[in-house]
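hey so i finally got around to running both of the ones u sent me last week. sorry it took forever, my laptop kept dying halfway thru and i had to restart like 3 times lol. anyway pasting them below in the order u listed, first the sequence line then the structure token line for each. didnt double check formatting much so if smth looks off just lmk and ill redo it

first one:
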Amino acid sequence: MQFRNFKIGLFAALLSGLGQVGVSAAAADHAGKDGVLYLNQNWNDEERHSFYFTPQGSYLLPYEWFLALEQPDNDEPFISPKYIERFGYLADDEAYTSGNPDGLPIGFAREPADNGEDWVGMTCAACHTGEIRYRGRTIRIDGAPTLGDFTAFEKSLIQALGATLEQPEKFDRFAQAVLADPTEANKAVLQAQVSDQLAWLAQNDARSTPTHPYGYGRVDAFGIIMNEVFGRDLQQPGNVRVPDAPVSYPFLWTSPRLDWVQWNGSANNPFGRNVGEVLGVFGHVNLTGSLDQLGKSTARPRELFELEKLVGSLTSPKWPVLALGPIDSEKAARGRVLYSASRGNEPSCESCHSLPDADGLYPMTPAEENLFGVSFIKTEMTELAKIGTDPAMALNFATRNVNTGGLAPLLPAPFTGATEVPAPALLSILVGMAVSDGIANAYPPFSPAETAELIGYRLKAQGLPPYRPKNLLAYRARPLDGIWATAPYLHNGSVPNLYQLLLPPDERQQTFYVGSHEFDPETVGYRSKPGQRAFLFDASLPGNLNTGHYYGTDLTDDERRDLIEFMKTL
């Protein structure tokens, strides 16, 4: 007991300057032109806008169409900020600057096409840029999960294109905006092109629509990627499955330094992960036809390389004291002790969610295991039965089998000639084809040093087996730096705030509203409030379970709040 009190006193002393530290950190934060507070995360304005608007190979609509498209039920622009924010995506508060002259939403980029016609597509920023609002102040968190609703956005886009075709006056305004010479003949061609793109998007939507809506801040990313690659690109419609295992968009800071990424720890090569992400958001890869075209994809290797380097420089957001109020140093010190303490047979928080040492270093993988002598932050994989959280995402991925179509004779051993292959293996092979083609044909070419960096140095030392996922029937735990800014919680976003996460599962809210950016600094999460832009989350639905993650749920209420106070400091 004396030692425990000594540790609390020591941490309290260390944390007693938190208010002052917070003020210093906040002084490095800055407000944008429209008053948005940008936290100091090691990006300047130019780097931030590069992340927001660098194209990655996603082809949604011709660019001029996107600018000219009207909302389905009126003549206001589809990309007007208020309309885009209905779907949880963020308007650029500094729009019409040199980095975004046409006022695109954050995470939408101009894609130069091979035929000379520019398109618009989505980028990683659409799903990994967060905002919280507190007492009239808007705070931007780069790399945090967005509250975007991918399905609702796509359905509204389809409705807008359909209304454009169905309503002559709407189509005439559209044609006048996008055609240099709006003759009747040219308008007829345009009408056919819009009809074709509408049909393509409707097919995409049919493959991507879940049984139950995801709502804000979630998507079944693997389900959609596999449907696009195995169903559309491989031209095997029988491979399509309902994407019914939504996950929250993970936060990006620290990710390039982790040994494994994805909620189920299924990927570690950053280029492969990013190419797969492109294929899920309106990119595509050629998997049929002539051999010389196999593996060619729309993914942009050079741009993805630069984006990953940007993410590598991103630091976690520090609690903005001036905006959200001070951290109670004594409560945080007691919470620090709780974070590292085991309780009975349960491991401590720190045993899975590691903390840095005095030099700022996390537990790392052995450098001698890596061909380049590089170490990575260790992540912990917890088996489904042990962690007890909703198993749908891990099970859907690990147990899915798919037809190989015409690629069967071209597959590497041991799958050569196989007509059916486990989905994780085939996805790795097919994305690997796109990765190899992207590296081989990048312009300007990648140097050997750049290629090593592009793949995240993920090559084992000579004589060691290649990197393989540790356990696909498990979920990954990672360091919790910046966790305060990443609600809702658990891999499927089924818990609204940190306070609820530390309650026993049978005491957690079974329903709550998602969609508001209003922040609650006491419970640390978004406020649950009904409204026009609110989605009622129901934890009883398949894929939505808020069970499991029992760690810390036996705390007293005071201890629970102490632990939350400490997590604000991470």
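and the second one:
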Amino acid sequence: MPSKPSSAKKSKSPADEVGEAELPVDSTKTKKEVKSKVLSLIEEKKPRARTGNKEATSLPPLGARKPEAPAPEPEPPPAPAKPTLDERKAAALNLFEDDEKPKVRRRPVDENAAQNALPPISLLNDPTPPKPIVPIVHAPPAEVPAPEFEVGESGEKIIHLKPPIVVKDLADKMGLKPFKIISELIAFKVFASADKAIDIEIAEKICEKHGFKLERDKREKGGGVHKVEEVIVEPVAQVVEEVEEEKLQLRAPIITFMGHVDHGKTSLLDALRKTQVTAGEAGGITQHIGAYCIFHNGKPITFIDTPGHAAFSAMRARGANVTDIVVLVIAADDGIMPQTKEALSHAKAAGVQLMVALNKCDLPTANVMRVKSQLQDIGLAPVDWGGEIEVMEVSAKSGMGLDNLLETMSLQAEVLELKADPKASPRATVIESSMVAGKGPVATVIIGQGTLTVGQPFICGPLWGKVKALINDRGESIKEVLPGMPCEVIGFSDMPHVGDEVVVMKSERDVKKLSEERLEEIRQKKLSVPRRSTLEHLFASIEDSNKKALKIVLKCDVQGSVEAVSKCLTDIQSDKCNLDILHKEVGAINESDVLLASASDAIIIGFNVKVENKALTVSKRETVQIKLYSIIYELIDQVKEAMAGLLDPITREKVLGHARVKQVFKVNKGFVGGSVVTNGIMNRKQRARVLRDGQAVYDGGFETLRRFQDEVNEVRNGLECGIKLSGFSDYEENDVIECYELEKIAQTL
């Protein structure tokens, strides 16, 4: 058993006693207490005695092999000697002594840092020359790029840029710095950086300010890296002569009634259709194009009724262009009139078959032979007179000759052999358009080829649309329309122009894209009109500015009426008054029309339209005049009277009489000319002038006119009177006082 370690305290070494003795005497009480506490703590941590390990008393089991002796392990390195108690006390005391000494902080020395001290003399005596000092060269300022432009035919600078227009690219093209463009964009309330894109309209204004013209580069066909530009073209019209005979079928003939106003065109068509169309027309005259369809012997016939008034010549021409047969209606009691000749010229220009219907043959004043002789004179020889023109005597009221007229028209249509391909790409011609409440833009069309069905997308001039509904002439909704038949089409994006062609295409996307391209072309044409100022133009503009002007906002029920009325108004010739049509549109008079007229001091003229309730209220508040008409010649006459009323009346002098001064009298308030009236009269309410040696020396009014002591209004020829003129006293004998009157005469256009 190992012996237990002794727990006796060791005696202090002489070194420890000397260390304690060497402490300063005047050390503070606090340091001694702290040292004593540290020493006491160290003494308390003496190692305690440990008991030895107990030996194992268990024996190995029987038959067990004798364990082999383990291999001797390598001796571990000797552990460092543990510090003695005296050494630990001395270390603890040194910690306190180090804390009392002031500590000096030193910066770490960077060996690589450059030293400001002079080099040693050995280096100064070095014969190698020092390295030359290389001066710092700054980079030159960025040069402003030179402008890139082309000179046009008129000498203008043209810049080509592809959209989108980036500020930096635009500045480079004009040879400016981007910040200059950015500062100018602020004036247009556009805040953009150098790498941002701006609108083409703003870029054009910036270029125009610096004397440039911006043109957009269009991508060439096949150009581009990722995508080839697709060119959309509307289908080409089918030529009937080139189509195979098996595909063609007979179509309905299109017959147009034309002639002078009030010769019975619409009444004759009413009798054929057994309807009452003229009852709905104002004044009993047709002012629209109407398309109707009837069946004779099971075969359809399409009729077009055109107005006969002189204002609707464009409608007559349009009707002749889409027709196959023209029936010239002439009243038997009236004969050939100006519009009859005009309709005949339209029919000849269109190159269509011509027939003549002599209406009102049942009247006692009818003279059929006179009308036929007139036809012979203008080159329309009747068949019974050996000519080629079918002339039929009919009456719309009694129904005389209507069956013969229908039969003759059917025979003419069979002779012409009018055929079309119903399976071709549909095409139709717009003969009238209007804005209908609840339906939007509606157009009356006649199908030229193919079969128009509901749901087909189409292009019509610059507008696009999709067939939403088809309505026949009886107001019934139908699903398809065959060639030669009329119908109303609903589904236009805007009001179509009469005469445009409705072309059906395969894709609605192509239709919209083609419409956008055409609208953009129209816009560019309007913007690219050169404005050249000449001296003659300047004088003309000055004269126009001095003229009176009647401003008009025109609203009509259909597009054809808009054309006819605006043409008649612009044809009014006057050197003294201008007529300005500020706005012309189809539809009822609304609030925006009234506000436009109020802002521009104009009047509103409505033709066969109504006024909305809101517009009526606003017109009373804004004191805007609204005039409604249903007959076109009344409208034109009223506008002429209004233009004449704007003109200032002409002032003319009318001499009333003369008086000669015989003697000058002095009165309290000046001088009076004693005169005798040589001719005419002197009227105190009129004006007078003093003539001396044939020259006027004064012009003014009468102050007093006396006969003896009485104040009188007038003095007649041969009588004496005293005349005192307002503000004039320099009378002389033999002066002539001329009395005259200013009369106003209304001007004419």
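quick thing i noticed on the 2nd:
Residues 1-29, 49-58, 221-227, 308-312 have pLDDT under 50 and may be disordered.
anyway thats it, ttyl
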